[in-house]
Specification:
single chain; 153 residues; mainly alpha; 69% helix; 0% strand; elongated
């Protein structure tokens, strides 16, 4: 396998493209939803689609194309991907819900006592719904399929 164009590694190139598409989509949708350009969405977590899922699913699919779907490295990548996607829809999503509840409680408490306890809100958009994870995974697989001949070259 020859060196890639971006990172000197064809699989990393494809993974970066899948990540970028997922994150750039969030920037574009922020224009339509929030009616403003929010370039920070390029680096933020959470939302549609899951860039964690697109990244690991493109990695796993690319490894399958490059090294074979029977290879040990594909198996390791698949297990890694499933753990990341489960975490995105489970633990990270729950942490975001907890942050939302804590923010609400702090606001109500501040209203009752007449002063703020903490000036900074906790970040609530951390994880993903299972649908966001599914769409992110599908995006990553599609990107890897699109670049299949590049990976196998």
């Amino acid at each position: 396998m020859e060196a890639g164009i971006i990172f000197g590694n064809r699989i990393l190139d494809v993974v970066f493209i899948a990540w970028f598409i997922a994150q750039f989509y969030k920037v574009i949708t922020s224009i339509f939803i929030d009616k403003k350009l929010n370039i920070k969405r390029l680096w933020e977590t959470g939302g549609m689609p899951s860039s964690h899922s697109s990244t690991v699913s493109s990695l796993t699919t690319s490894i399958g194309f490059g090294y074979g779907f029977q290879s040990p490295i594909f198996a390791m990548s698949l297990v890694f991907s499933l753990i990341v996607m489960y975490d995105a829809a489970g633990i990270r999503r729950a942490a975001g819900k907890h942050a939302g509840l804590i923010n609400t409680l702090l606001d109500k408490f501040a209203t009752k006592i007449g002063e703020k306890i903490h000036d900074e809100k906790l970040k609530e958009l951390l994880g993903h719904t299972p649908f966001e994870v599914l769409i992110g995974a599908a995006l990553g697989i599609l990107v890897a399929f699109f670049f299949k001949s590049y990976i196998e070259a």
